[in-house]
Amino acid sequence: MGGRRSLRGRFRDESTMATLMELPTGRFLAVLSGGVVLAVGIAAGIDIYRGTPDVVLTALIPILLVAYFGGLFWLSARERLLRQRRLEQASTSHRLLALMPDEMADIAAELYRLQGYVVTENKRPDLEDGGVDFEISKQGKTWLVQVKHWRQEVPVKEARELWGIVASEGAAGGILIGTSGFSDRAQEFAEGKDLALIDGPRFLKMRGELPNRQGSTDGVPDPMVSEGFAAHLSSVHRPACPKCGMQMVLVTRLQDALVASQFWGCKTYPSCDGTRRFAFHYMPAMTTHSGARESIDAKAEKP
């Protein structure tokens, strides 16, 4: 199959922000400088044509040009920095699963940018994306990438659909990212094809191979998890889903470095979106001035 660069223009995010995220700083400054010189030349030409020089207008045009595009470039650079910070924080499987689906797609795109690929993002899930989250290109070849940030294994249906798009678009191959792994049938289907299946552990391994990046810390006590939380959670009965009856898993949503919410979610999500309130929040022990540790509940019961 070929590797044409302009495969999916009808699905691409062609906003100015998305374009600037792909533009190196040096190239942006060169283009902006050329634009300023051109704007000044046009303004001066208008003044000469009118015969009445307007210094304010001649100066205002390049200032507005620099302010507008400079501001957009700063916003795009800030967005990339935020994605890189999320990628840096996602050092364990449970941190990875705590991300929202859009955030997972964003850090996956940033991972490939940091690997030297040219990334072209498609329209976000609230718009039509054509079954592909983004494209990556290198050395004249293009691969289509789809991210499935689910709490269950990705079935063979998703692998077949992505491979069908790869074939119809004439791309060099496809990459399917499933943070909770893939079914046996999906893995069998991908064998012998240029269709890479990347689960959570492999994604963390790729992240750890980036220059100046800490590797996966799975199996190492996570500083974000309070001491004793795992023991506390193991003592809590896991309820059944109110919709399908399957066992539920604890879902933690993070906002920056803070826990925004915790709830029970169906293990088969997104096939089932059943949820329950998590009523057994962990109460960490507190250290008193005398050095003894006591729970918050115990302190509250004191007169």
Question: What this model shows, in words?
Answer:
- Helix 3 crosses helix 5.
- This protein folds into 3 domains: 74 residues; 119 residues, Trna Endonuclease, Chain: A, domain 1; 58 residues, no CATH class.
- Strand 4, helix 7 and strand 5 form a beta-alpha-beta unit.
- The longest helix has 35 residues.
- 42% of the residues lie in helices and 18% in strands.
- The strands form 3 sheets. It has a 5-stranded mixed β-sheet with strand order 1-2-3-4-5, sandwiched between helices.
- With 303 residues, the chain is an alpha+beta fold.
- The protein contains 10 helices and 10 strands.
Strand content: 15-25%
Cα gyration radius (Å): 25 Å
- What's the pLDDT, averaged over the residues? 77
Q: What is the name of the CATH architecture of the largest domain?
A: 3-Layer(aba) Sandwich
